[in-house]
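Priority: medium. Attachment 1 of 2:
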């Protein structure tokens, strides 16, 4: 999911509806977003459309005007010390400089995505890049992708470091210095792309058979109509906005925050270093595994609408980087034991996240003819019927991390997310938004996955849940 998952590459459960067996698509009704909208979904959509942009503004404004306190603006308004008009009047507007900066940034990423075929896979052992095939879509299409995100990330960061240490074309604090004006530019792009994707879905879709319409305008706008909107042969909206420009920017934003901390306080604290290192590890993992990402829920199930378009342009770069922003205003120097504990938690979470996904991928690729934790893996055989009445077989892995809990990759992800927050100490609530948000998001995703699988596998799914009783935390949930 977008607001979300952008950075959370989370694969479908073993043999979930995202998986295609014998080249036949699973029931189309289970694929992607809903065909019909119930009142609860509609209410959620309208609330998100109304409040998500406001939430982003509120967090960024709280840091800019109230030193990252989430309660101070509300208390000021309640006590009559400030009005909404006062707060808005102190908010920096969009500037020509920010607009030029943002336009250049997006144009540069489009150029790296479309014009520079991948060369990293030629010399990096184990890396899979270049032209790759995605999963089969509900209409039976197989899209080709130019996978070159790692290359785009490396070139962008090499230029950033060359500028910082040799060229001095601009200050490394440039992103922080234009943070709120850039927010307006990001919103403009997010809404423009989402609106264009909706119009395109109605009037000139890339593949009409892969479109989903409900009778509701708001739901269509938010959750998307087209499955894989494209311009030309190679410019894929979903892959571009999911992976660039927001995720490439994530590490640059953190570097700019570190540079600002150095400028204001004369040092970069160990907490800022931890946030930069742990989040960079996550971003690099995303790009190293970009080909694998083509087979995940985000690409295999989500249609492209406001949720992905705006979410990737605004929600991800602005709310996933709150720890670094907070540390500019409140530099935290952790004791050595605290810093080591945070680092170990982050690395352990990453290890579980990566190894759980690796075990599932290995099991799938070898059809179970492999070793997991030194033993032959155990699996539950499932049978399901697709829309055309054909029966298919699938296997659900119950060994390794997948025997510990049904979504243990999410557990690793949450441990990593908690580490970023703990690096900021306990002075404010704001840096902890990320772990609260990710817990809600991944729990919801976990329940959504399971609903799909239960309706797909029936009794076989009951056998699987009996074998692996817990979802995320063994003994708890």
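Attachment 2 of 2:
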């Amino acid at each position: 999911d977008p607001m979300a998952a952008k950075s959370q590459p989370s694969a479908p459960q073993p043999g979930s509806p995202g998986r295609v067996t014998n080249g036949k698509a699973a029931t189309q009704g289970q694929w992607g977003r809903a065909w019909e909208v119930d009142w609860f979904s509609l209410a959620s959509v309208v609330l998100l459309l109304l409040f998500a942009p406001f939430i982003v503004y509120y967090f960024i404004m709280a840091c800019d005007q109230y030193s990252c306190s989430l309660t101070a603006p509300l208390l000021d308004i309640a006590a009559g010390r400030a009005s909404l008009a006062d707060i808005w009047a102190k908010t920096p507007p969009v500037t020509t400089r920010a607009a030029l900066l943002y336009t250049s940034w997006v144009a540069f990423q489009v150029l790296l995505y479309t014009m520079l075929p991948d060369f990293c896979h030629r010399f990096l052992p184990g890396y899979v890049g270049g032209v790759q095939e995605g999963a089969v879509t509900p209409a039976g299409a197989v899209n080709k992708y130019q996978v070159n995100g790692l290359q785009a990330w490396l070139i962008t960061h090499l230029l950033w470091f060359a500028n910082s240490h040799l060229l001095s074309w601009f200050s490394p604090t440039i992103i922080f210095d234009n943070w709120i004006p850039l927010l307006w530019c990001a919103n403009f792009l997010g809404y423009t792309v989402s609106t264009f994707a909706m119009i395109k879905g109605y009037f000139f879709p890339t593949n009409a058979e892969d479109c989903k319409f409900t009778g509701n305008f708001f739901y269509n706008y938010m959750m998307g109509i087209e499955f894989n909107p494209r311009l030309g042969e190679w410019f894929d909206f979903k892959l571009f906005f999911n992976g660039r420009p927001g995720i490439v920017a994530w590490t640059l934003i953190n570097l700019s925050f570190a540079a600002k901390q150095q400028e204001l306080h004369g040092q970069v604290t160990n907490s800022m270093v931890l946030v930069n290192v742990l989040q960079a590890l996550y971003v690099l993992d995303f790009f190293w595994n970009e080909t694998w990402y083509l087979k995940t829920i985000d690409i295999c199930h989500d249609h492209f609408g406001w949720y992905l378009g705006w979410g990737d342009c605004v929600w991800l770069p602005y709310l996933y980087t709150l720890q670094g922003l907070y540390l500019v205003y409140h530099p935290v120097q952790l004791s050595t034991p605290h810093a080591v504990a945070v680092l170990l938690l982050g690395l352990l979470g990453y290890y579980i996240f990566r190894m759980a996904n690796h075990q599932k991928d290995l099991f799938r690729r070898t059809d179970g003819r492999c070793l997991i934790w030194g033993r032959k893996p155990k699996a539950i055989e499932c049978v399901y019927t697709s829309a055309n009445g054909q029966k298919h077989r699938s296997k659900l892995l119950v060994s390794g991390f997948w025997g510990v809990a049904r979504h243990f990759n999410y557990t690793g992800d949450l441990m990593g997310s908690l580490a970023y927050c703990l690096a900021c100490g306990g002075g404010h609530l704001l840096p902890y938004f990320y772990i609260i948000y990710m817990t809600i998001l991944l729990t919801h995703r976990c329940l959504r996955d399971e609903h799909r699988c239960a309706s797909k596998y029936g009794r076989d799914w009951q056998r699987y849940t009996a074998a692996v009783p817990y979802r995320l935390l063994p003994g708890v949930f």
